[in-house]
Amino acid sequence: MQKILWILVTLSMTFVIADDFKPWSSKINTLTTFEKHVLIDKGTERAFSGKHVNTKEDGTYICKVCDTPLYTSGDKFDSHCGWPSFDDAIPGAIKEVPDADGRRTEIVCANCGAHMGHVFRGEGLTSKNVRHCVNSVSLNFQKKKAQTSTLKKAYFAGGCFWGVEYYFEKIDGVKEVISGFMGGHLKNPGYYDVIRKDTGHVETVEVLYDPSKVSYETLAKTFFEIHDPTQVDGQGPDIGSQYLSAIFVNNTQERKTIEGLIKVLEDKGFKIATKTRNKSPFYSAEAYHQDYYERKGSKPYCHRKVKRF
Ligand SMILES: [Zn+2]
What we know:
By secondary structure, this protein is an alpha+beta fold.
């Protein structure tokens, strides 16, 4: 008898420990009553009441309980049924089980078993002919993060590149700024080539930015406010062709943005000297020109922020 009792105690302890080891077991205690009603007790939220019914953003829908990615936005479609609908799941993420009602097929998270909803076939709504009808409350949404490949480059010349780089690096969404040269005919120029003023290059910064965080227009507006775009012979005390104000555009869309901003400034009475030019090869300047003020711990001598828009 004692032995049987001991086995029972050991067995029950094993279950408690195993339960504790499930990484999501503590998460269950944090669910709201309604979330538990759907995810654990297999309830259904009211049609059109969930927060993911009409969402179209790029991203991944993950299990509310165990955070496993279950569906991607690419498989989401408008079914007009009132619940988020997907015509496919991430491979292996969803398990189909016969519903207790004996008619429908229930879908659960393959990892933790949380109730998602039901799957229907043969409705002809999409080419895959499948509809995963999922409760919004069973899912969390993770927005797709910008990939390095989606970063864009913009080019601005506004006098000594040290100061232009200094201000662009302070903008949210700007990943990197490189001081260099653009617009001339000499290949791979160095600082002492450009300073002769016969290479055609202007000191230019290459701005690597995340367009989902900061727009090209914001960058361009900043550019017009951190240097004097009305100075025709250089910038501040730096006089010469390599210090002229210019924006090198990648395409007609950028050109239109710049022309629009110049028009706004001209309407305000500024006589803009900035030239809008097509992008040409960009050459990085020597390492000692990069992050100049940050390394020196000093402030630009000929650039400052002035509100113009
Ligand atoms: Zn799960």
